[in-house]
Each structure stands twice: as structure tokens, then as C-alpha cells.
Amino acid sequence: MSEDIITAAMVVIGDEILSGRTREGNAHHLARMLTEAGIDLREVRVVADDQPAIVEAVNALRARNTYLFTSGGIGPTHDDITADAIGVALGLPVDKDARAMEILTSHYEKSGQPFTEARQRMARVPEGAILIDNPISAAPGFIVGNVHVMAGVPAIFQAMLDQVLPTLRAGRKLASQAIFCRFGEGVIGAPLGAIQNDHPKTVIGSYPRYEDGRHWAEIVVRSADADALEAAADAVRAMLEELEVKHGE
Amino acid sequence: MSEDIITAAMVVIGDEILSGRTREGNAHHLARMLTEAGIDLREVRVVADDQPAIVEAVNALRARNTYLFTSGGIGPTHDDITADAIGVALGLPVDKDARAMEILTSHYEKSGQPFTEARQRMARVPEGAILIDNPISAAPGFIVGNVHVMAGVPAIFQAMLDQVLPTLRAGRKLASQAIFCRFGEGVIGAPLGAIQNDHPKTVIGSYPRYEDGRHWAEIVVRSADADALEAAADAVRAMLEELEVKHGE
Q1: Phi, psi dihedral angles at A182 (to 5 degrees)
Q2: What are the DSSP calls for B91-151, one per residue?
Q3: From the candidates A40, A207, A215, which should be mutated to test the interface with B, based on the most B CB atoms within 10 A?
């Protein structure tokens, strides 16, 4: 690993995820987008709408990763406590942001809905935060330090992430090859371990599948080095051909 | 909150989740099953196939929850390191378990497949662990202390959880009422906060939805106390009726 490895973590905030009421999908979307950008997502934590829990997770993860992303808890109700929790985590005062107030005032004027005190809470961000535009319902996300605070509603989360991604330093992109393997992991385990040992510049993963009563596996080889990737993938394919001969049909 | 609150946490282990290759679903299943059992899932962490990361998450979460569940990393390949990581976390030696070897030997005899050294790795558990039966592919999960180690493949995870659930102390079951709200969170935010203040024995959540260009919200009231639940839910419904009159059609 070298200095051009860019890492990230995510904190998902919301009682509704932990109670099983809502199935979380933003982590999966973020994982795919970051992998595409060559950024290594190291950890995801799902925590409740509880200030100490949010503060602990944010501080643990922002300290040891290049970037931290959060989703959820930036709406107008009493259980939306993310902005205040981020303020506590970073030791920054939280107040209504003039630019955010402008955006929201204009949005509610156009929509003819009242700009209630509850809605004005959505303009509160930690001091010095940069706003992230919300093209769907106006209430902005924000960036403060390396922490990117985004909405929990998937369409809004995705729109915010689309804006944030071009601002991130991209890592060395890992290329990958996925190899279908009709043998279960029990058969390939030992030879695959040997191939991993012989190809230290690659990361070889094996993902068991179980469908229609049959076990198979997908073998994925990843590397930032194209030659190393090809050599390791060739070794995997040669190993599988050998197994075909040995185990026959 | 009192001593009859039973809490849980989960550690999901797997590079394939963090790279976005696989969409995780076991956390959502566990969340629903635990809520049903009256057990409060407090936190979920997704970590890589990396021993220090697994050890840190397991030790942080097992210490402060009644139960900890893990999924993933108990197969036969070199990247399946959960059993060893749990051993390190709990300070216990890890070795092949006689009963697990028996189960696996019999399984592979019946299936006519070789019981390879890689497959024998699946019999390795920390000293003193209780096995969790795997009715699908034989390789057992295990329980050690308050840590329940289960497979990542969803069908196997679910089968293992079905066995484990009846052994857990059930908490006071929270009853809940979900109330449809056609107003966005900006309108209901302030009155809902007031209702929460007036009904401390309940937890009131509001979950914004955005569909077909319209915002609405689902309000969920939860309580272990049936009377408190009914009173708070009545207050929410009265608040919504008042808003109907005020905002008209």
C-alpha cells in the first residue's frame, strides 16, 4: 500500500434502518461509485438517531480515512439531529447558514408552501461548512473538513453524491477480473490460497454462491497493476482447467 | 430505559460488500427478526476481510450489547478469516472441533466429494464454542460468549438465525403504529416534536418519502406500553386532522 491509496468510510444514520423498517441502499450505491473512482471504502457503520452514537462513529472514522460520508438525519423533524451531532463531533458551532436560508426561502416561495420553523432547521450547518446542492427538495447537504453530510432519501443521496464525486481525489483505480468457477470453495480453497501467495500485488477474493441446490463460486482478482492482474487471473484459469481434468464431468 | 432492554449489534464481514460487488441483505433480515423478538439492534458495522478491523469491531460491540452477531468469512478459502479473528478478539485458541469434523466428514462422505484440507478449515472454532447447525451446506456457525458467528450466504444466515433466535432472551416487545401523513416533514416537524415531548414513554419517528414528485411521510410511534402508544398515536392523528383543516385540499 502506498500514499496513493485513498480511503473512505460511511456512517448511515437512522433508527428506521436498525428496526428493519427500511432496507438501506445508499451504502451499496456509495460502494459501487467509490470503487469506480478508485477509492477504497473501508468501513460502514449504521447507527441510531442518537447524538453520542453519531459523534463516536464520525470521530472514529473521519480520523482514519481520507473521506467520510454520512446519510440520513438532515430533514426538518425532531429526530433529524445529524447537523448538530457533526457540530459536536468537530467542535464547531451550528447555526442557520445565510446561503441555505436563501435557497430554502426561494424554494418555499416558489412552491407556495410556508417556510416553517421546522423547515428552517434544515438551514442549520456547522460553521464553515460548504453546501451540497439538493436538486430535488432544496434542503442542502454540506461538507465540513473531510465529512460529507448527505440526505437519507436515496434519490437525493445519489444526486448529492454525483456533485461530490468530481471534487474527490481519485485513487489508483483497481482493475478486476471476475472468473466463474463451477467448483465449490472447498475444492479451490487451497490452490487459490497458493495463487494469492504467489501474486502479492493482487487481491484475490472468492465469493460463494448457492443457487438451485448447487454451490459455485465467483473468483475476483483485483490489482492496480495490469500485468500483475493478468498473471494472477491466468494462474486462476490454469488452476480451474486442471481441476476440470481431475474432477471430470 | 430499564434492565429489560436487550440490545444487539452486528458485524458484517466481507470485502465484496465494501467494493459494491454484493448488496448486503443479512443486516436487514436480522433487524426485522430482532425487532420482532423485542431486541433492540443498536449498531451494524461492515468491515473488510482484515483481522485487525474484525477484532476491533467485535470487541467494541460485544462489550456494550447483550448479543453480537456476525455474518460472513466462515468458508474454506484463504480470505475466510472470521474464526481466527474471533479467537484473537476473545483471547481463545482456535482449532478443529471434533464435533464439527464429524459433521463435515459425514457430509462429504454422503456427497462423494473429497474432504479437502481447505474444507477442514471450516471445522476450526474458538475453544469452548457451541456449534450452530448449517442445514444447507453442513459447515457450522458457532456461539462463543455473546458472539454468534454465522454464514454470509443469505439462505444459510437465515437458517442459522432461525436456530439461534429461540435461545435469546426476548426483550419487552415494542408495539408500533404507522400513520400515513400526506404532509411533508417541514409541515409536521414542529408539532411532532411537541408530541414527542409530551409522550416520553414513546419513540416517535418520521420517515420522509419522495415518490412521483411528491413528498409525504410515514410517522411511526413505538412503545412498550400499550396505553402510552395509543395516546401518542391519537395525538399524532389529531395533529394531522388539524393540519387538514388548516391546509385544506
Answers
A1: -80, -5
A2: T--EEE-HHHHHHHHHHHHHHT----HHHHGGGEEETTPEEE--TTT---EEEETTEEEE-
A3: A207
pLDDT band at B248 (very low <50, low <70, confident <90, very high): low
Rounded mean pLDDT for each run of 10 residues along chain A, 249 residues in total: 77 95 94 90 97 98 98 93 98 97 96 92 97 93 98 94 89 84 86 92 82 81 90 96 81
Q: Which residues of A touch B79 (CB under 8 A)?
A: 204-206
Chain B residues in contact with A29 (beta carbon < 8 A):
20
Q: How far apart are CA B156 and CA B137, in angstroms?
A: 8
Identify the CA nearest to A73 among candidates A106, A38, A44, A48. Answer: A48
DSSP H or E run through A7: strand A6-13
Q: Where are the domains of chain B?
A: 6-167, 175-247
What is the distance, to the nearest Å, from the Cα of residue A249 to the centroid of all Cα atoms in its chain? 41
Summarize pLDDT for B125-159 with one digit per residue, the tens: 999 999 999 988 899 999 999 999 999 999 999 99
What are the two backbone dihedrals, phi and then psi, of residue B77, each rounded to the nearest 5 degrees?
Answer: -95, 170
Question: Does residue B125 contact residue B132 with C-beta atoms inside 8 Å?
Answer: no
Res B166: pLDDT = 86
Which CATH topology does B175-247 take? Alpha-Beta Plaits (3.30.70)
**B201 to chain A nearest CA, in Å?**
15
Residue A89 CB burial class (10 angstroms; 0-12, 13-18, ≥19) = buried
Are residues B116 and A153, on separate chains, in Cβ contact within 8 Å?
Answer: no
Residue B31, pLDDT > 70, answer: yes
3-state secondary structure B74-108: CCCCCCCCHHHHHHHHHCCCEEECHHHHHHHHHHH
Size of interface A-B (CB pairs under 8 A): 202
Q: Record the cell numbers describing residue B180, joined without a space.
A: 400515513
The Cα B223–Cα B47 span in angstroms is 32
pLDDT digits (tens, 9 = 90+) for B56-73: 999 999 999 999 999 999
Rounded alpha-carbon distances, angstroms, from residue B42 to A33, B30, B138: 27, 12, 31
Report the pLDDT value the prediction gives residue B1, as an integer from 0 to 100: 40
Chain B residues in contact with A43 by the CB 8 A cut-off are 18, 45-48, 53, 57
Domain B6-167 adopts which CATH fold? Molybdenum Cofactor Biosythetic Enzyme; Chain A (3.40.980)
Q: What is the pLDDT of residues B69-104, one digit of tens each?
A: 999 999 998 889 999 999 999 999 999 999 999 999
CA distances from B175 to A117, A238, B141 (A): 31, 57, 32
Determine contact, residues B18/B46, Cβ cutoff 8 Å.
Answer: yes
